[in-house]
Amino acid sequence: MKTSGLLNSELLRVVARMGHGDMLVIGDRGCPFPSHGRTACIDLSVSRGIPSVTNVLRAVLEDLEVEKAIIADETKTVSPHIYEEFSRLLAARTNKGNPIAEENISHADFKHLFLYGPLEGREVAAFIKTGEFTPYANIILVSGVDF
After folding, report:
1. Is residue 20 flagged as an active site residue?
2. Which one from 20, 36, 81, 112 is the annotated catalytic residue?
């Protein structure tokens, strides 16, 4: 029985299959699931706030090598406490000894990336929905390699 790191078998399977440059979205309760079949959609929400987006991010970072995080500009201005927690969690990790890069884009571009990216050749491996009810509490992790 697995006792640490990611315990959800669907999420663990997605992370294990990710390659360099693949993307994983961790989203709040209001984010829409992609309507095509190219992105695995995993709903982890149990109730309001459970699990939080930062709890899921913390767990994913234990098992996924991340080289870049993509965060909407609006997260910084509308939900700065979420942005600060994202920054704190990402700063505690490195990719091959380097800080995890951060890219900021508009929320419209952020949504377009995970909703239509796989249809345009950008590999969005999975979308994880949480019980988070904070606006713009979403992050995209881009998989790196550890060699």
Report:
1. yes
2. 20
